[in-house]
Write a structure and sequence with these properties.
β5 and β6 form a beta hairpin. The protein is globular and about 45 Å long. It is an alpha/beta fold. The strands form 2 sheets. Strands 2-7-1-8-9 form a 5-stranded parallel sheet, with helices on both faces. A 4-stranded mixed sheet has the order 4-3-6-5, with helices on both faces. It contains 8 helices and 9 strands.
Length: 192
């Protein structure tokens, strides 16, 4: 069984929206809640969207080797996945959805190669990605430029993923991903 469904994409490609949509379609897919030091955004809930924490608490968890993967993004904020979350999913034979950057995805795949299914989501174009980042209104122009600067390095990882989806139509992208999940986990009983 693939306990870990990894969704990775450049910022603004729709990975959060896709993850929420997948959960609506199949309630047995549990979202892995990551830790972050960035500020909480409007409509986000601590403990549901992320575990929001301070730099010092996050750095202590790094020191104590509590993360399976972590990274400091854009030189400002930490993001990371707790080992305990993944271990619990394996022990309880649950399927969890991980929304990770490309490096985090590769870390999880390396540590749990037989338990992971990785899917890279790509925007249809750079122009479309820029438009999406501006439209969501959560980032300054400077931050959008930083996110776009990472695009080439993130796209370079896509061949390391099990599957690659272009998100030019949300419904189609979600349906493709759901079909991949179901086909890879045939015979698995969900929602127990």
């Amino acid at each position: 069984m693939n306990n870990f469904i990894i969704i990775s994409a450049p910022s603004g490609s729709g990975k959060t929206t896709i993850c929420k949509y997948l959960q609506k379609l199949d309630s047995s897919i549990i979202f892995s809640v990551s830790c972050t030091t960035r500020q909480i955004r409007e409509n986000e809930i601590d403990g549901k969207d992320y575990f929001f924490t301070s730099n010092s608490k996050f750095e202590k968890k790094i020191k104590d080797d509590k993360f399976v993967e972590w990274e400091k993004i854009h030189g400002n904020f930490y993001y990371g996945t707790l080992k305990s979350t993944l271990d619990e999913a394996i022990n309880k034979d649950k399927m969890i959805l991980l929304e990770l950057d490309v490096k985090g995805a590769m870390s999880v795949k390396k540590l749990y190669p037989t338990k992971s299914l990785s899917i890279f989501v790509e925007p249809p174009s750079v122009e479309d990605l820029k438009y999406r980042l501006q439209k969501r209104g959560t980032d300054s122009n400077e931050r959008i430029i930083k996110r776009l600067e990472r695009l080439d390095s993130e796209l370079a990882y896509k061949s390391n993923f099990d599957y690659h989806i272009i998100n030019d139509d949300l419904d189609q992208a979600v349906n493709k991903i759901m079909n991949i999940i179901k086909n890879k986990n045939k015979g698995v009983i969900y929602g127990s």
